Amino acid sequence: MSAGPSAAEPAERAPLLNRDSGTPLHAQIRDILHRQILDLPLHPGSALPTEEELQRQFGVSRSVVRQALSGLADLGLIRRQRGRGSVVAAAPVLRRQLQRAGGLDEQAAAHGQRLRTHVLRLEAAAPPAAGAEALNTQNTWEIERTRYLEQVPVAFMRTWVPRELFPHLTPALLENASLLALMREHGYHPAGGPRQVQAVTADPGLAQKLNTHPGQPLLLLEGVTRDALGHGLEWFNVWHAPNTVFDVDAQVTSQPASISQEHLRRLRTLTQQLESELAALDQRAR
Fold first, then answer.
1. Distance (Å, whole) CA 171 – CA 148
2. Quick one: fold of 94-249+257-281?
3. In the chain, where are the structural domains located?
4. CA gap 77, 38 in Å, rounded
5. Contacts of 60 (CB under 8 A, 6+ apart)
6. Cα dihedral across residues 122, 124, 129, 134: positive or negative
7. Taking phi first (over 0 means left), then psi (-120 to 50 degrees means alpha), and beta for anything else, what does residue 76 get?
8. Among 60, 102, 198, 201, which is disulfide-ready with 64 (CB 3.0 to 4.6 Å)?
9. What pLDDT does 90 receive?
10. Tell me, what DSSP letter sits at residue 12?
11. How are beta strands 244-247 and 94-97 bridged, if at all?
């Protein structure tokens, strides 16, 4: 079996740059190296070619090479070390608890990490049929956001929320902000709801948003968040990059067989209603 290709391709095998495309040469080199890191794959700590080798490989000046490497560093894909060259960086791992609704910022903070949110789109649009049923309305905002961990995109979120409940949402309000926190500020207290996780592959649009390549496996989390009274507050799809770990607290149940699931559901609903009433009383007392 022949050895696989390395990042330091010989000059005669180097991908050709298109000098007439209008795309800056440093951006073309950055994208070529990006594909090599994703497709080979190069493991964390693997050395990239030196600046001199890249100059010879692509036939460009050192300043162009340095711009390309800076672009990779900005994406969190490499670490540049003085006197040691550039190495592939380990992707930061996002950990989230599957049974916990929301609170992704708090979960990241518990691991010493900080999430950043960038709003890509917010406009009035009807949700898919499943979302309209979950929210009991077609009059919704459609919101697209990307979540970043250490400058690396880790999740792309597409969310629908009822416009009559949140008429004043703007991209500026949601930028680097928690949607659930904004809901609480408007007097709606998210309680949770059913979720499901499935493995999917990235289409070209998702690949671009998550800084990966088409066909890359992703984890799709889909569900609805309701308040304590069962009113739908959001219906969402969240595509997670492969560097996401879902933690599940699995327990062995010892409940008597005579207790039906319907009875448990009614008890949970009653508990949620009581919690909502207590929260409202506490708010008025303040």
1. 17
2. Chorismate lyase (3.40.1410)
3. 11-88, 94-249+257-281
4. 10
5. 17, 25, 26, 29, 54
6. positive
7. left
8. 60
9. 65
10. G
11. parallel
Distance separating alpha carbons of residues 57 and 166, to the nearest angstrom? 54
What pLDDT shows up at residue 97?
Answer: 72
> How many CA atoms within 13 Å lie on the side-chain side of 122?
18
**pLDDT tens across 197-226, in order?**
899 999 999 998 988 888 888 999 999 999
CB contact at 8 A, 94 and 111: no
Q: Is 285 helix (H, G, I), strand (E, B) or coil?
A: helix
Q: Nearest-CA neighbor of 191 among 101, 265, 282?
A: 101
Q: What is the mean pLDDT of the chain?
A: 81
3-state secondary structure of 228: coil
Residue type, 276: S
Is the bond leading into 41 cis (omega within 30 degrees of zero)? yes
- CATH class entry, domain 11-88: mainly alpha
Dig out the tokens for 260 from the structure: 């039906």
- What does pTM read for this prediction? 0.62
Q: Report whether 78 contacts 86 (CB < 8 A).
A: yes
pLDDT, tens only, 266-280:
777 777 777 777 676
- Amino acid present at 25: L
Q: What angle do CA 20, 22, 25 make, to 5 degrees?
A: 85
The encoded tokens of residue 255 equal 């409940």
